[in-house]
Amino acid sequence: MGFVKPTLPDVDFEEFVRMPLMERIRIMTTKWADHGLGAPRMIHVLYIVKLIFFYALGGVLVATTTSHLPAFWHVSEWWNQPIVYQKLVLWTILLELIGLAGSWGPLAGKTKPMTGGYRFWAKVNTIRLRPWKAVPFTNGDRRTWFDVIVYLALNLSVVVALVMPGVHSDSLSKVLPNNTSGLVNPALLIVPMVLLVLIGLRDETIFLAARGEQYLPALVFFATLPFVSNNIAGNWIGVCIRAGAMNETFTVTDSARNTYRKAFQFNQTTDGDTVALFYAENIASGANAVTVSETTTSTLRFAILEYSGVATSGSLDVTAMAQGYNASPNSGNAVTTVSGDLLLGVITTSDPEAYTAGSGYRMEENVPAEPGTKLITEDQTQASAGAVSASATLGAADMWAAGLAAFKAANSGGPVHSADGSNCTPWPPSVQSPLRHDRSSELSRQARVSCNVPRTSARPPVASTPIRSATSARNVATMCGQKGATQAR
Predict the structure, then answer these.
(1) 442 has a pLDDT exceeding 50
(2) Residue 453 — φ and ψ, nearest 5°?
(3) DSSP element (H, E) containing 40
(4) Going by C-beta distance under 8 Å and a sequence separation of 6 or more, which residues neighbour residue 383?
(5) Which of the four, 103, 167, 238, 269, has the lowest number of CB atoms within 10 Å?
(6) What is the pLDDT of residue 451?
(7) Whole-number average pLDDT of the chain
(8) Where are the domains of the chain?
(9) Helices marked H in 169-211 — which ranges?
(10) Is the per-residue pLDDT at 264 higher than 80?
(11) How many whole angstroms from its chain centre is CA 31?
């Protein structure tokens, strides 16, 4: 088999066509066993070029252009946008429907022309194969104008869903707060789903060519399911807690059976609160719900954060805790033992306050949402080992408690940090390769959830919060108190 010349049976063509059928079949099957199709290598190169430039680059170009995303060569700015992958699915469906994808070219038995698809399915009186005789209104084996119209309408509906910009998704915004491209409008997917089923009942060939058994469920998921983010194996979860009574005994568990350890717990003696931080290392992957319970009846506020890049065992480095009354809460100093620690601060107040994160820190959670906040979490990555504290500025003097825990990274005992020691940077929770971002050595925060359960019951509160997708304090009403506790915004 050459680059241009095909491998043909070793027989004279004029003699071959005069041979009995069974002899011709024997010759051709022997040739297939020895040489395969025998197409010249340039055909394989053509397929590779088509796959790279027409399918892959073409699909990315269409997806980014129609979703108001940066140009396709700015890979770092679009590769983590869900709408790109939704539109790549639609692009694949369209190419399959037209006949330019899997069932195309000589390797699919098409030579002149190399494209079948629309040449047959958009033409009246071509052969049609119904899947079930019992289905009414599908009699016959020839394509009618009705079949042609349904086929063309299906193509058009896929094109519309493909080229229209995305729409806002509340579930996506909880996971990726800075996302602006949204998701494909679910309403635009209804017509393609209906027409794909309808054309499949009239002609199973088109349904199978469109890979309906694969992509119809995908369209259903796009149209009906919220965007979620499961935990990623090997990541780290922190649970920051404020309870409205002293000397609480907390129990933290989750549905993934991760083991939670206590980093610190102390009382705010003036206001009568308990502040604590629990954590789980090397967590399991998949959907998860974290449950926090306490031994007495009191308010219960907590925030859950998921990070990648933290050590999978022995991650706790040092802690510091303090309480006071003024507008400048500070945990007091702790001296870290290794460079690159994740610094996680937990600060609470007696009354609702306006918080400003401490120098170098990024505020991750406010519980409840402002202006009623009584608990915040803040984080940063420490560039070099040394003295460090967690601090904040309040809108007014108040009774406060502040705790700091430093956790080591997976790569040498401390979370990987940026060269300038800048703040931790959120990472899209769907990404499974930690520590790769615009600054490739930063610690990554994977997800966050917060919950506020007020004192409403005579029994010890139990709050169970799913963390399949990140959320903020203002969006916890349907996620908290699954064990019966009442929640408040």
Answers:
(1) no
(2) -115, 110
(3) none
(4) 339, 340, 417, 418, 419, 420, 421
(5) 269
(6) 62
(7) 83
(8) 85-224, 236-475
(9) 170-175, 190-202, 204-209
(10) yes
(11) 48
CA angle 147/189/144 to nearest 5° reads 0
Q: Residue 96: in which H helix or E strand, if any? A: helix 82-98
CA distances from 64 to 189, 192, 222, 358 (A): 19, 21, 18, 38
Give residues with Cβ within 8 angstroms of 107, minimum separation 6: 37, 39, 43, 44, 47
Tokens of 340: 């690159």
d(CA 418, CA 434): 14
Q: How far apart are CA 155 and CA 169, in angstroms?
A: 26
b/e map 263-286, b = 16+ CB within 10 Å: bbbbbbeebebbbbbbbbbbbbee
Q: Tell me which H or E stretch contains 94.
A: helix 82-98
Strands (E) across 106-182 are located at none
Size of the chain in residues = 489
Q: What are phi and psi of 315, to 5 degrees?
A: -75, -25
Are the C-beta atoms of residues 209 and 97 closer than 8 Å to each other?
yes
DSSP E strands, 414-483: 425-426, 444-453, 462-466
H/E run at residue 240: strand 236-243
SS3 assignment, position 279: strand
Q: In whole angstroms, give the CA distance from residue 172 to residue 178.
A: 10
Nearest to 378 by CA among 395, 362, 401, 402: 362
pTM assigned to the model = 0.61
Rounded Cα distance, 47 and 380, in Å: 49
Q: CA distances (Å), 226 to each of 185, 442, 468, in order?
A: 12, 29, 11
Residue 426, classed as helix, strand or coil, is: strand
Cβ atoms of residues 330 and 390 within 8 Å: yes
In this structure, are residues 308 and 410 in contact, taking their beta carbons and an 8 Å threshold?
no
pLDDT at 483: 27
Q: Give the H/E segment covering residue 217.
A: helix 212-224
Token pair in block for residue 187: 């309403």
The residue to which tokens 């290392």 are assigned = 281
